[in-house]
Write a structure and sequence with these properties.
Blueprint (H helix, E strand, L loop, with lengths): L2 E6 L2 E7 L4 E5 L6 E2 L10 E6 L2 E6 L6 E3 L2 E3 L1 E3 L5 E4 L2 E6 L56 E5 L8 E4 L3 E6 L3 E8 L2 E8 L5 E2 L2 E2 L5 E2 L5 E4 L2 E7 L2
Parallel strand pairs: 3-4
Antiparallel strand pairs: 1-2, 1-11, 3-5, 5-6, 6-9, 7-8, 7-10, 10-11, 12-13, 12-21, 14-15, 15-16, 16-19, 17-18, 17-20, 20-21
Length: 234
């Protein structure tokens, strides 16, 4: 589990584990990480953690947020990054480096070049029959069944009717600086989480909150004015 190490003037004050998908940082006691200092805004910044990745977003704070001495509005956190809030520093420590995965992609902003017409999924060839004489102890253990491949179909705009398969671990949709959400593919299914923007995405007309929301077959998602239908293939 990733964590933040809070320090001031080189003195470590505490370690904070990123146990929630969205944790706020600010001066008010209602924040997940409270820093009681006048240089810190009431609700200064937020950290959104999805699977092994964390995003830092400045919440229009008065004095701004720095990462590695550079001002940011939104930043993908890497192991060892130092977040600066006034005199306070928060060092981001990842539990482990992201394993190389050819199907992993951190961000994928929806563009027409990424959309393709729906195509059938090739059928899986049948497993070879059990060899005669094999005992039950010799049989391989069944692996967990992965979720069916999900996809979204655009319902309005210039790309209406086009389809995008959700084969990546993370797929980011929306318009940077306006509204961004992430769809995560997990063993339990697909989940959508708000990442950036004052307005949260909606599913079936209901505005989401900051927590991950499970997607069901034929849910209608609205992000940055674009409506799309989520469905399971196969």
């Amino acid at each position: 589990m990733a964590k933040l190490i809070l320090s001031m003037d080189g003195l470590v004050l505490k370690e904070i584990a990123l146990t929630k998908e969205r944790m706020t940082i600010g001066r008010r006691p209602t924040n997940d990480i409270q820093i009681d200092n006048l240089a810190i805004s009431g609700e200064h910044a937020a950290v959104v953690t999805i699977l092994n990745d964390s995003f830092l977003e400045d919440l229009n704070s008065t004095n701004g947020t720095l990462v590695n001495s550079q001002p940011i509005k939104k930043h993908f956190l890497k192991n060892g990054d130092v977040v600066e809030l006034g005199k306070y520093k928060l060092k981001y420590i990842a539990e482990q480096a992201q394993q190389a995965d050819p199907d992993y992609e951190k961000t994928m902003v929806l563009r027409s070049t990424m959309l393709k017409p729906q195509a059938p999924i090739p059928s899986t060839p049948p497993a070879s029959p059990q060899a005669a004489g094999d005992s039950a102890a010799q049989r391989p253990q069944a692996s967990p069944v992965p979720p069916a491949i999900g996809a979204i179909q655009i319902l309005n705009g210039a790309n209406a009717g086009r389809e995008l398969e959700l084969t990546k671990t993370l797929t980011t949709l929306g318009k940077p600086g306006v509204q961004v959400a992430v769809i995560a593919r997990r063993p339990q299914g697909y989940f959508i989480t708000h990442v950036e923007g004052a307005k949260f995405p909606a599913v079936n007309g209901q505005t989401l909150d900051s927590q991950a929301h499970p997607l069901k077959d034929h849910d209608v998602i609205e992000i940055a004015g674009i409506k799309m239908e989520f469905f399971l293939k196969g």
